[in-house]
Amino acid sequence: MPRPAKQACATENDTICCKGNFRHKLQSVFLQLRQTSNQICAPLEIEDYGIQTMPDVSPPKWHLAHTSWFFETFLLKPFLPSYREFHPLYSQLFNSYYNTIGSYHPRPERGLLSRPTVQQVYAYREHINEHMLQLIEYANEDDWPEVFTRTQLGINHEQQHQELMFTDIKHIFFCNPLRPRYRESSHKSCIPEKLQWIKYEGGAITQGYDAAHSNFCYDNEGPSHKIFLQDFQIASRLVTNQEMMDFIKDGGYQDARLWLSDAWDIACKLGWQAPLYWEQRDDQWWHMTFTGMQTVDPHAPVCHVSFYEADAYARWANKRLPTEQEWEHVARPLPIEGNLREQDILQPTSNSTNHGLTQIYGDVWEWTQSPYTAYSGYRQTAFSDFSSEYNSKFMSNQMVLRGGSCVTPSNHIRPSYRNFFYPANRWQFSGFRLAEDNS
Amino acid sequence: MPRPAKQACATENDTICCKGNFRHKLQSVFLQLRQTSNQICAPLEIEDYGIQTMPDVSPPKWHLAHTSWFFETFLLKPFLPSYREFHPLYSQLFNSYYNTIGSYHPRPERGLLSRPTVQQVYAYREHINEHMLQLIEYANEDDWPEVFTRTQLGINHEQQHQELMFTDIKHIFFCNPLRPRYRESSHKSCIPEKLQWIKYEGGAITQGYDAAHSNFCYDNEGPSHKIFLQDFQIASRLVTNQEMMDFIKDGGYQDARLWLSDAWDIACKLGWQAPLYWEQRDDQWWHMTFTGMQTVDPHAPVCHVSFYEADAYARWANKRLPTEQEWEHVARPLPIEGNLREQDILQPTSNSTNHGLTQIYGDVWEWTQSPYTAYSGYRQTAFSDFSSEYNSKFMSNQMVLRGGSCVTPSNHIRPSYRNFFYPANRWQFSGFRLAEDNS
Amino acid sequence: MPRPAKQACATENDTICCKGNFRHKLQSVFLQLRQTSNQICAPLEIEDYGIQTMPDVSPPKWHLAHTSWFFETFLLKPFLPSYREFHPLYSQLFNSYYNTIGSYHPRPERGLLSRPTVQQVYAYREHINEHMLQLIEYANEDDWPEVFTRTQLGINHEQQHQELMFTDIKHIFFCNPLRPRYRESSHKSCIPEKLQWIKYEGGAITQGYDAAHSNFCYDNEGPSHKIFLQDFQIASRLVTNQEMMDFIKDGGYQDARLWLSDAWDIACKLGWQAPLYWEQRDDQWWHMTFTGMQTVDPHAPVCHVSFYEADAYARWANKRLPTEQEWEHVARPLPIEGNLREQDILQPTSNSTNHGLTQIYGDVWEWTQSPYTAYSGYRQTAFSDFSSEYNSKFMSNQMVLRGGSCVTPSNHIRPSYRNFFYPANRWQFSGFRLAEDNS
Amino acid sequence: MPRPAKQACATENDTICCKGNFRHKLQSVFLQLRQTSNQICAPLEIEDYGIQTMPDVSPPKWHLAHTSWFFETFLLKPFLPSYREFHPLYSQLFNSYYNTIGSYHPRPERGLLSRPTVQQVYAYREHINEHMLQLIEYANEDDWPEVFTRTQLGINHEQQHQELMFTDIKHIFFCNPLRPRYRESSHKSCIPEKLQWIKYEGGAITQGYDAAHSNFCYDNEGPSHKIFLQDFQIASRLVTNQEMMDFIKDGGYQDARLWLSDAWDIACKLGWQAPLYWEQRDDQWWHMTFTGMQTVDPHAPVCHVSFYEADAYARWANKRLPTEQEWEHVARPLPIEGNLREQDILQPTSNSTNHGLTQIYGDVWEWTQSPYTAYSGYRQTAFSDFSSEYNSKFMSNQMVLRGGSCVTPSNHIRPSYRNFFYPANRWQFSGFRLAEDNS
Q: Which three-class secondary structure state does DSSP give residue A279?
């Protein structure tokens, strides 16, 4: 699950202007963010807010409360002396995993909580909003740098949960045989996009967060450090549904020779035969979307696949996945634009450009072949405060994904951004593109 | 779980008068029943309706819909030609376990269904009510006997689910750290009740359903048949919380010698140290009630214990549990009165009478030492229609409970009534009284 | 699992003559018994002695040691002052489940013990034998009644484990793809046996252990008590493999309507499609025997079925299983003879008699429809000594089987003998015969 | 689990001389290897050969057979035309995981196989030996390069299983409450060794297999490739038992802040309180060794810790684990010597040198912070032949260990050797040394 981390080095930000009356700007950015979370939930019935379909999924109500708890715990309680907590038990109910904050409600049991009600959670959000506005307005100058930094982190944190709300709602609706629609359909067919191979020269390259791209980053994006890249080439576009159907037809899901050992075990155990959300009816593939069940568009990028499926596909295609270093090298010079959340398409599409690299940002998070670990020079410390628990305690068994998806806000993504999930996870908007050595 | 069964032999009924304009009376009884289910849920928030805290528990919304599905499936579809089903998928979503009706939604996943909404479920109930009234009014004379019998069964079925709604709501509220109240407290202390031992002579005795007590029964209550009873004596009242606390203090929950082998395994695995819903705070026992957490009243009957705990207690006390035959023999001459649902106390209490047998009906279901099996002469058939699936397919691994509880309607209970649950179940209003051989 | 229980009332015994020089006779009976256990294991390789294929199965080595531990713990330590235990840890390693004796090695981990070696276990047996002979010879008169009673129980206990050795060895050999043979084949085809229905009149009948049949019994066979039986009829022979194949062909294993609710759950979970040990190869059924894989003889009694399968078959056949009372009533006047262990056939066969009741004793244990519970008048006490832990702590969730099998010694079985296993157990020599009401 | 991989580039080898009469030398090396495996098992009782204490552990008998199966499957069957397999079912029973070879016996059920017997397995080994000698002698010149390469791989494969035999035997003996000894004690106290920090300069460095060190490698050690290293320093010796005891005393196992998220989950679930094999008796730590239970020597390197424990310790010590690149850089110039198997100590010890780097080779495998992945330029292919299944299909979720242990043969280890296990594995001889950035 994407989890925000400590602010490393930001001094200004395109979303959060720090010059002039930046306290008022920050208030405005903050309120805009909070309103967006509410809007994401606007199409929901009250009953939808409480459902947890698997341990990975949290009820939408929980996301709304947890993101508020974050501001309450790390900002209002330590910095707003007059602040009194909304409810004494919320600090336990809505703590996600911060062991340093105290005990927390077991994750798999988040769906058992009918109370607080949705109305009470919205009241909690209002309560937090009011006091956060006060804090931003009146924090004294000594506290301000820390208040600013933490508020910025809280905003990025809530953006991540906004993406999770989308993916969790999709799963909740899929698990219901009634297959509700999140919104009405406005489906357009995708135009086929030719696959090209783009060559890159290797060499000594500096990577990691660069203030030129964004004035905020998580600590796992740094420090800036030098690496060696070999020459490589990368596919101009993402792997498509049609290509995945070819893999399926060729028996890819039944051929142990294509799968990593752990992958084969889990694919057998869970009975994977196609990407998550796919269903075959009369020789036609359908899949769940925010507009209910739709036929699978062959030219759209494949989505909701695990790292294991991406890796098996690549082996079948005699290619490989790119490393996160290769991906970052490719992405660095490109503008941050694509099918991101602001496009309001909410599903991956093809790109009509038909020349050069496409879909680097948006559409789907791209699985890389890189395990999620600390960069050289990253300072490992005990997870003794909230920021150190944010990112680095997840540095085992997960794989890096890059580039954002159709439900990622454009001001949240950057070339150095490292998302990470377990290699078997499929409920995120995750797809992939191919790479190969340039020999 | 208590499950209603086929009507055996009823021609009239104190709740359903069959003489004169009994169709109108039946309509009135039916509407009253349906209204009661809604009233039980009246204190709930919309969010409470969808929660399933363990596989045994069903969301209140599911109970409301399932009881309606029962009427739709077994009455409206076969007997009301003009009837069109409310929603094509409801027959799958709200089937409980009737294999003969088709596939059904997995029981442990009932809590994952945000849709249909509570409002839609109430609309479904209204839809069923309207058409049931039509059917009762206009069913032709050929169909009538079957329509009447099935309606009577549907009413008894919904009464059982009303009891389950109470027990499930209690569990749902208990699992929430906020411990919501179902209603405001009106708690009164219980008066201590002296324990007496009442002697009974054995001999050749006829048992099973007797039309003199009730003109409805489930098939598992018959046929009437002869048994031998040895002389025995039985406790005048139920075992109390104080007595259970003595057992706890004496190390009863830690002493393997008191427990059946299977009992000890499950008590260790689940860490039982006291009845369900009990919590110790500063040397005082508290427990969950419909009015939130309350101190345990020492003189009230112990409740929410499994058969295994009742059996271990009895061994500790050098007594035993009664057989269901002994219980029935004792109960048969007694009036059907006690702390039943109409008293609206909603928890077991002591009885101030202080002489003779008390608490036979109401307060708590009484565990017996009898496994739930068919009576001699019971005709075993394939579970090929709804009524044969109702009761007899559960005749393995469960134990019989007798006498009804504080949430059982008084017109639902009778001397021959056999409730049954697994010996480890605790979330029902289940307690026990002691017996011993008369030697 | 069959477990011996406390001796109730024996003063003499056809196997253990107590008159005249009965101490020497008891020594002889004891040694014979001990030798038989060794002989059962004679065909084994050392490697076979240590295998545990499922928690229900114990390694043959464990049986050999545990039966010795029983004599050591309950006889030598309390009654032979000079006795020093063979090894200080054996009391933990070879205790089966006696909580009152102290902690014990976890049952599912019996197969992890390479030491003590087979040779050491045989040395342990020799050590016990020598000292038991001493004890029987020299026990003083005060101790003698208890020594005699416990020795008798120890002998019956080891006989039960001899039967378990056979069933466990069969399972161990079956789980090995090499399918070893316990001994060479001497297979003879079974003669078909006509099914007749034998009628019995009901009435007031006395049941339970009767000293006229045997001068030993377990406590669960008493006390003698009166019951009522309705008229009934019972099948003259056991259900055959051919009949089971008809059930299979008719889709019996796929038809939920034939199965109890718990039965259907477990049959689906474990994928039951035929009795245990059956395998289909080219439209021919084969099954595991002590002489390796053999074709299934259609006229032999079906074996290695659970209660659940027996019950489902009976429902399919529009019959039912007998109660244990009916079975005992039928068996009581019959001689104790049949395909028991002394016949050395080691698998069930048909009987050529072709008139009257056959196969009551031997061939297979017959599932009844009776849950294993205490008889009326049975005195329930805390499981505070070894005898009370022997039988009655298993009185929940198990079903009664009657009549012994082809691996039961003839001096171990009697009309009142109650064997008991969980309704899903299949690895014993368990089959069934049908009954029905006489209407 | 260490698994051998395809030979990349060997033409000669210090263990396998290819010059002159190298076929005879290869025969001699081969026989020596095979004899060593038998010698490792010499102290075992027949009963010990068949035990599997957890899925990760294989019975010693299985190792003996599986290593033979490897030669049979990949050499004798394809290259020795006259060869007839020893037993038709062995190819299924002793295949470890090669999906391309066909189905295989489930790993967790290896301990259920009493047959083939130990004697038969030794006969199988003899059979393989004879035919391998023939093959080496008479393989034609066309086949020879492949025969040589595969034989070399088979030899390295069996060496890896020799190490596993040691670790599995230790676990088998530990799980038995009798705690058998593999051999008699010759325990000597360790001399304390001062901790020094050795500084290294970073820069552009070439890593991967180098023919100068060894003329054999697995494919996962190549290709040779360039990396960047930052300046760093590394501990002169391994972390000791005393240091681990300090960590324990300081509450390290109870402090969530020190543990990776996945680590904390598994440490809680499995109840880790100390390294594997440690037991506390009266304030003294004991641990299992090949000479039975011994007190923990404070100055010996800590062993049988998981990556997770090593990582938590490092965080507690405000240091980190080295990367595999740092380790390789340090090791490259050093002679391959240390407490390896030839020393016949069979447990890690301190080094008396007291200056400079010690214990790089031998004692314990050293956990690094590097996930096991392909080097840049490694050619990923379908796992379509045995060599490609050897190493690369395990490239997910495992961590790299370096340097060999006290049970690794000295001709099996080299600077580029990459061992890999899951981060929670503890039953290998695994320990660690600390590193830190040089800032």
A: strand
Count CA within 13 A, CB hemisphere, residue D49.
Answer: 28
Cα–Cα distance, A323 to C252 (Å, whole number): 55
List the single residue in D with minimal CA-CA distance to A369: D373
Beta strands across the sheet bearing D278-281: D278-281, D284-289, D292-295
- The length of chain A in residues reads 439
Q: Which of these, C217, C212, C227, C439, lies nearest to C327 by C-alpha position?
A: C227
Q: What are phi and psi of B24, to 5 degrees?
A: -70, -35
Show residues of chain D in contact with A384, CB under 8 Å.
Answer: 257
Residue C312 near residue C259 (C-beta atoms within 8 A): yes
What is the token pair recorded at C23?
């101490």
Which of chain D's residues have a Cβ under 8 Å away from the Cβ of C116?
A: 178
How far, in Å, CA of C381 to CA of C393, rounded? 10
In contact, B139 and B152? CB cutoff 8 Å: no
What CA–CA distance (Å, rounded) separates C251 from C248? Answer: 5
For A379, the closest chain D residue by CA position comes to D437
Cis peptide bond N-terminal to B116, omega within 30:
yes
Could you tell me which CATH class the domain A197-437 is placed in?
Answer: alpha beta
* Optimal mutation site among A46, A47, A94, interface B, most CBs of chain B within 10 A: A47
- Are the CB atoms for A310 and A241 separated by under 8 Å? no
**Residues of chain A neighbouring B47 (CB-CB closer than 8 A):** 46-47, 49-50, 114-115, 117-118
Bridging pattern class, strands B435-437 and B399-402: unpaired
For C92, nearest residue in chain D (alpha carbons)? D177
The string of DSSP letters for D70-128 reads HHIIIIIHHH-TT---S-TTHHHHT--S-GGG-----GGGGGG---S-HHHHHHHHHHH
Cβ separation B373–C369 shorter than 8 A: yes
Separation CA A249–CA B58 (nearest Å): 41
Among B256, B421, B261, CA closest to C398: B261
User: Residue D437: helix, strand or coil by DSSP?
Assistant: strand
Q: C67-79: per-residue pLDDT in tens?
A: 999 999 999 999 9
How far is the CA of C101 from the CAs of B60, C63, C387, D24, in angstroms? 48, 18, 12, 63
- By three-state DSSP, how is residue A140 classified? coil
User: Between chains, do A114 and B175 touch, taking CB under 8 Å as contact?
Assistant: no
Tell me, yes or no, whether chains C and B touch by having 3 or more C-beta pairs under 8 A.
yes
Cβ burial, residue B141 (10 Å; 0-12/13-18/19+): exposed
What is the spatial distance between Cα C155 and Cα C131, in angstroms, rounded to a whole number?
15
Question: Which residues in chain C are contacts of B396 at CB distance < 8 A?
Answer: 260-263, 307-308, 311, 423
Tokens of B427: 């979330």
The pTM of this model reads 0.94
What are the tokens at B6? 């086929």
Amino acid letter, B309: E
CATH 1.10.3470 applies to domain B12-174: no
Distance from CA of C313 to the nearest CA of B (A): 10
Sort out which chain D residues have CB atoms less than 8 A from A381's CB and list them: 315, 318
Q: Give residue C210's identity as a one-letter amino acid code.
A: D
Q: Are strands B197-200 and A419-421 parallel, antiparallel or unpaired?
A: unpaired
pLDDT mean by block of 10 residues, chain D; 439 residues:
35 43 94 98 98 97 97 96 96 85 87 97 98 97 95 96 98 97 88 94 91 83 93 97 98 96 96 98 96 96 98 97 98 95 96 83 98 91 68 93 98 96 98 93
pLDDT per residue as tens digits for the range B61-96: 999 999 999 999 999 999 999 999 999 999 999 998
Give the pairing type, strands B292-295 and B338-339. unpaired
Which sequence spans correspond to the domains of chain D? 12-174, 197-437
